[in-house]
Amino acid sequence: GWGSQSSKVHIHHSTWLHFPGHNLRWILTFILLFVLVCEIAEGIVSDGVSESRHLHLYMPAGMAILAAITSVVYYHNIETSNFPKLLIALLFYWTLAFITKTIKFVKFCDNGVGFSQLRFCLTGLLVVLYGMLLAVEINVIRVRRYVFFKTPKEVKPPEDLQDLGVRFLQPFVNLLSKGTYWWMNTFIKTAHKKPIDLKTIGKLPIAMRALTNYIRLNEAFEAQKNKRSSSPQGSRSIWRALCCAFGRPLLLSSTFRILADLLGFAGPLCISGIVHNVGKGNNTIRPQTKILGVFFISSQEFLSNAYVLAVLLFFALLLQRTFLQASYYVAIETGINLRGAI
User: Fold this and answer.
1) pTM of the predicted model, to two decimals?
2) Are 39 and 45 a contacting pair, CB within 8 Å?
């Protein structure tokens, strides 16, 4: 319990996200894990064409994946339990990771490794990601005055979490639970044992109540009426008010849908590449670049491997379904709020 800043208010402790920059940290960690998987694959493919084994090409990346998974589990627990002083461990780790990757990147530059080699690009990406995660950690400590400050900033829990009657926790859980709807397992288990009623479901969050959305839409509508312009009032003002009040979540839903549709192209492209490489009957890469005693492959050589394309196809389909489901959820929730407001 060293340095615990836990609130005395009785709330859903397992869902309150205390630290700022929460979603950005999770997104950066997911990208970091994907880049590390690519680094492992690149190391295995490069090592496969060498006469001797070079474990240093992919073993550090494997350890980095374990460290990244451990860091996000560790971060989730200290955030929901509110142990800000334990952030110093993550601050120390991101600093070391950033320094070591920077040294590796500089060494590549000194030995003439450039953008034509995939390992150089992956190392540069890792430097950027570790630097951004370090910046997020510093920002949490700076904004909330944690660790090195004597008087931390007091933060009140959301009003919804103080009301034990509210059990719709989608807005308050971490990003992974939002994307997988993991928080709904309690409802599913309860409904499996016995029929659920309105009391079991609980009250709506404040942001989804009809009165809240009515006030939001009414303020936007009044702002449209008060604007001095020559445009006629009526249906056009209503549409503008709707866009002003609910346009941001609809734009987010459209963005998720566009990303899902773009990822839909990955399937045919990967399958075409797999069929092409299998049809050739020889999937062995023959890289021409050898620096520091090991082979360096290009992005084109990396993507000509059928196994790599199969893994990329899996991740593309997984991400596509995640974006598509998120688009549906945001659109349906916004539609409910909009109808309640009207």
Assistant:
1) 0.88
2) no
Distance separating alpha carbons of residues 116 and 9, to the nearest angstrom: 56
The residue count of the chain comes to: 342
In which region does residue 281 sit, left (phi positive, over 0), alpha (psi from -120 to 50) or beta (all else)? left
Q: Which two tokens stand for residue 145?
A: 């005055």
The answer to whether 295 and 287 are in contact (CB under 8 A) is yes
Q: Which of 181, 152, 154 has the alpha carbon at shortest distance from 169?
A: 181
CA distance 342 to 338: 6
DSSP H helices in 87-234: 87-110, 118-144, 159-162, 175-180, 185-193, 198-201, 210-226
pLDDT digits (tens, 9 = 90+) for 51-104: 667 788 889 999 999 999 999 999 999 998 888 889 999 999 999 999 999 999
Nearest Cα neighbor of 118 from 126, 110, 100 is 126
Helix (H, G, I), strand (E, B) or coil at 294: strand
